[in-house]
Fold each of these.
Amino acid sequence: MATIADKLQAVRARIDAACRAAAREPASVTLLAVSKTFGPEAVAAAAAAGQRAFGENYVQEGVEKIVALRAAGVTGLQWHCIGPLQSNKTRPVAEHFDWVQSVDRLKIAQRLSAQRPAQLPPLQVCIQVNVDGGPTKAGVAPEQAVALAQAVAELPGLRLRGLMCIPDPQPDPAAMLAVFADAAALFARVRTALGDPPAFDTLSMGMSDDLELAIAAGSTMVRVGSAIFGRRAYAAAPA
Ligand SMILES: *Cc1c(COP(=O)(O)O)cnc(C)c1O
């Protein structure tokens, strides 16, 4: 049976191949290992194989894992909150995570900024964009992304790093690629509107099934869960 280390290596090989196909540097794409629903021992196994950045969807589960890994002496990990955030759950996120990729309204950003402990570096944030426009989906509408980015960029406890999106899967690869290309165009527009800040360097898109298409369109961070850790036994817990 393939171990977590084997599967990580296979995912890294897919990223390298996709970068070569797109004439991009493999170092231009960061792998975020999405460890939601898997225990601290799975994270520790991935960390032992060299993985540093981990993504969690559910606040309490994520905080428990962060604390457990630290207690086990596994250091140097970077934790990303990638799940929907309610305003009454922002404090543990501001206190424990390094990144939040799912900021989709100013109120959440203001709370995270105010609650970020002063002795920690600013919380690194991405704005989640509803790039393919479903009315019930999380994320700010593309036409509101510039205004939200400009407001978030002013908050002292945060550092705005880029955009994140979770488009619906498309059976046709060309259609999927077109959605990712829309996201890349929006990323460039927002960056220009902000005055090209060097820290605005992250376009987080692509998962286990579509990371090659996302990289072809310009993704700088792919979020990969099942291809590393296996099939999830449960789909969702309340955030
Ligand atoms: C679960 C999840 C992923 C990983 O999905 P896989 O298909 O298992 O790779 C990526 N991003 C977000 C926001 C997720 O919730």
Amino acid sequence: MSSLFPTYARYPIAIVKGKGSRLWDDQGKEYLDFMGGLAVTNLGHVPDEVKDALVAQLGELWHASNLFVNPYQEKAAKLLTDNSCADAVFFCNSGAEANEAAIKLARRYHQKVLGNDRYEVITFTQSFHGRTLATLTATGQDKVKEGFLPLPEGFVHVPLHDLPALEAAITDRTAAIMLELVQAEGGVIVVEPEFLRGVRELCDRHGLLLILDEVQTGMGRTGKLFAHQHYDVEPDIFTLAKGIGSGFPVGAMLGKEKLIPAFTAGSHATTFGGTPIASTVVAATVESILKQDAPARAAASGEYLIAKLSEKLLDLPVVTEIRGRGLLIGIQCTEPVADWISELHKRGLLVVSAGPTVIRLLPSLLVSREDIDRAVELIAAVLTEAAAAKASN
Ligand SMILES: *Cc1c(COP(=O)(O)O)cnc(C)c1O
């Protein structure tokens, strides 16, 4: 019997080793990994440059405290601000915590810098923002809220791509609008450019902050270092986590210069945020992503993968759409995909769902064409068999 709380419906595979796009289980079976630890291992598993930096740092210093000047953290922050529209970074340990920091910063900016009492954050149905009490309340999916009442105040949800509904939801309590640019857990829904432009205009007109949750879309995943760089829109705040540490637990909340005075000494903190080890891993990950041009490779591989999938799958009666951006791709099916995912795992390809009827693909940004061809072949085989089984029923 397991000594763990049963919070996960775990796949019956014990992964014990990884390298690049390959994983191995405790029986020695090899898998081609097209789920990337849910957009965490963007450079593949155990990437050499990050590993070397981490191993070197392990012999120097693990932790001192955020009560001291931390040159490692300064270096990681400067790499992020030099390569984005942000001017300052707060490091934490997860995506949920990064979003908590964003929500707190938005409230505090209104209450302490602007001197008003705005606190409400508008988010979108089908969104996902994390599992802390505030971020699960921000999340636009009821399933994450069951049994956790009462929920904290200050969150309103509107449908994505409905600008009139968004405008109607803005009141004199509204502090910010928060969204993902690809709703990932929500089914791989890409935000339309006109909609984001409209959101930015509403924020500017009503004095609201635009918060982008780039926890899953960040670090090259969508074909740019950050997904908002596909749009001619800049956020006031954006959050990162999954891909920023190559598997080491790290989160980051980034903001524009005008927000810096809102977080004064003592207003927000976390013990482990940006430790020497974490910051070394972040710096090595960002440097390696930039040096290898990983976002551009993700863009090219994503186009190739979507084209291949479209060619092999769109004629099947069980598939209705292939969508996504860069290497965050969803295969929309007509029925539940859980059994097909299990079958793919048995055949050595690891993929994951995004909601009940979408197969989600999140390979390494450095994935090879051969591995893409192999994955498409396996997916096409399983879905062709599923379509044939359906036809004979
Ligand atoms: C995974 C995810 C989160 C939560 O991150 P954790 O590190 O699990 O807390 C928040 N937002 C988005 C968009 C995510 O994909």
